[in-house]
Amino acid sequence: MNRIKPKKHLGQHFLISKNVIEKIVDEIDISQEDIIVEIGPGTGALTEEILLRNPKILYAVEIDTTVYPVLEEKFSKYSNFKLIKSDFFDVNLYELISDKEKIKLVGNLPYNVSSLMIIDCGFKLDILEFCVFMIQKEVAEKLIAKPKTKDYTFLSVFIQTFFDVKYIMSVPARFFNPPPKVTSAVVKLTPKQNIVINNVKKYKNFVSHLFQNRRKMIKSKIEEGMLNKAGVSPNLRAEELSVEDFIRIFEVVENDDR
Predict the structure, then answer these.
(1) Range 125-136 burial, b when 16+ CB lie within 10 A, else e
(2) 189-221 pLDDT, tens digit each
(3) From CA 34, how far away is CA 232, in angstroms rounded?
(4) Is beta strand 57-62 parallel, antiparallel or unpaired with respect to 35-39?
(5) What are the extents of the domains in the chain?
(6) pLDDT for 27-74, tens place per residue?
(7) Angle in degrees, CA 124, 130, 133, rounded to 5
(8) Which is nearest to 238 in space by CA: 119, 166, 99, 145?
């Protein structure tokens, strides 16, 4: 552990609680058929617990060059461990699996880019079995937020459109080295069945647009006729709309564009 110094610019906070690590891996529910991708293994604490439960393969994606020799030495005896020396955003997950295979995506996400990584999962729904992430508690609260609350944002709507979100537990700062300034949380994101959105990028931009100037009524952004067709009151604000409202409005707008 003392061979590696956490780097602030990479948002690194290494999890050091064995109990929390075991609970996270319990949630992953590992079988010998599993293809697991871990984002940011760091010192390999979570990695080790995953490997002890013998998945088919564990790909560990790490950007920090200083931990490569440590990870390679620590897990050299595991033939099912593969270290990917890269930024996660540069990895093509589709190249790691065969046709019809799925990935369990896990990790203690770097706090400075956790929201971006979670949003990115919305573009990989067809290959994700589920995701189990450690993130800031304030981001986790946005993922489960309901309309008309302060935590209900673009992120809430976008993720809840595509995933069932389970808040697993809060994790105090003392369980990390160095302790972050915030409380953390573990969440599980499971892709929904029968998702009706085909163009994820267009939908992402659509939801983001409606949340700009969130205090404005949506009739200032969408024609009233379309809102009526979607069965949504033009006098509501984005923060008052349910996820189902967003989906219905988007479908009306999409059909109009065609």
Answers:
(1) eebbbbbbbbbb
(2) 999 998 889 899 999 999 999 999 878 899 999
(3) 43
(4) parallel
(5) 8-191, 200-257
(6) 999 999 999 999 999 889 899 999 999 999 999 999 989 899 999 999
(7) 100
(8) 145
pTM, two decimals, is 0.91
Question: Per CATH, is 200-257 categorized as 1.10.8.100?
Answer: yes
Q: Which residues of 173-190 are buried (b: 16+ CB within 10 A; e: fewer)?
A: eebbbeebeeebbbbbbe
Taking the C-alpha atoms of residue 17 and residue 179, their distance in angstroms, rounded to an integer, is 12
Contact yes or no for 38/107 (Cβ under 8 A):
yes
The CATH topology of domain 8-191 is Rossmann fold (3.40.50)
Tell me the β-bridge partners of 170. 185
End-to-end distance of the chain based on CA atoms, in angstroms? 57
Structure token digits, residue 31: 């079988």
Helices (runs of H) and strands (runs of E) counted in the chain:
9, 9
d(CA 123, CA 199): 9
Q: Give the residue ranges of the annotated binding site for S-adenosyl-L-methionine.
A: 13, 15, 40, 62, 87, 108
Binding region: 13, 15, 40, 62, 87, 108
Residue 33 corresponds to which tokens in the numbers above? 């058929």
**Dist CA 15 CA 212 (whole Å):** 36
Peptide bond into 69 cis (omega under 30): no
**Residue of 177, 176, 180 lying closest to 2 (CA atoms):** 177
Contact between 88 and 10 (Cβ < 8 Å):
no
